[in-house]
Specification:
Distance between the termini: 62 Å
Number of helices: 8
Radius of gyration: 23 Å
Order of helices and strands: HHHHHEHHEHEE
Helix content: 40-55%
Length: about 190
């Protein structure tokens, strides 16, 4: 079992170094193989304890699994509704190409052939190859002023126009998670 986990880790590392990104299929396979060790480790720990500590261990493990069960139905993490909002907005603009750094938008739009190869960043060359009116959907964690500074730094501020921001209910532009721009010609025609 350890040999399989080691082999999959080696495959994952070679793939990452060769392609400079990680394919989900190798990561998931490695995680599944490593998860096979979990019952073995739990059993070993369980057998180390006396009867009273075994009961406490069973209760603790039951609470962990109960939390995982509940979390599978109700997420306690940050809401990702802004991605759904952005996807709905993009569907209202069906006839234009799109460039994005978000896998969900790439998949849901149906306009990116190899959506699983979506890059975590948008480079200047990809942006400049887009035709006029194309959409650029950027998932971004910083403020809009920081994003504008990045656009200026890369010399593309004259080639994009702001179209939408998500989540929409945010009154402060600093809370932007998805910003959508439209590709324009330099003259702004």
């Amino acid at each position: 079992l350890a040999t399989y986990a080691g082999l999959n880790l080696l495959i994952l590392m070679i793939f990452v170094f060769a392609t400079r990104f990680s394919s989900n299929r190798y990561s998931v396979l490695l995680c599944i193989i490593v998860l096979l060790f979990v019952p073995i480790v739990i059993r070993m720990k369980f057998l180390e304890y006396d009867l009273n500590r075994q009961k406490a261990f069973v209760i603790a493990m039951s609470l962990v699994f109960f939390f995982c069960f509940i979390d599978s139905f109700f997420s306690f993490g940050r809401s990702k509704s802004f991605i759904t909002e952005a996807n709905l907005w993009i569907k209202d603009h069906p006839s234009v190409p799109i460039l994005t750094n978000n896998y969900s938008i790439a998949y849901e739009s149906g306009r990116i052939k190899n959506y699983d190869q979506t890059k975590p960043f948008i480079n200047r060359d990809d942006l400049m190859r887009l035709p006029d009116k194309a959409l650029v959907a950027v998932e971004y964690e910083g403020t809009l002023s920081e994003l504008e500074a990045i656009l200026v730094e890369n010399g593309v501020q004259n080639y994009v126009a702001f179209s939408a921001i998500f989540p929409r209910e945010s009154s402060e532009l600093n809370a932007a998670k998805i910003v959508i721009f439209e590709r324009i010609s330099e003259s702004g025609e």
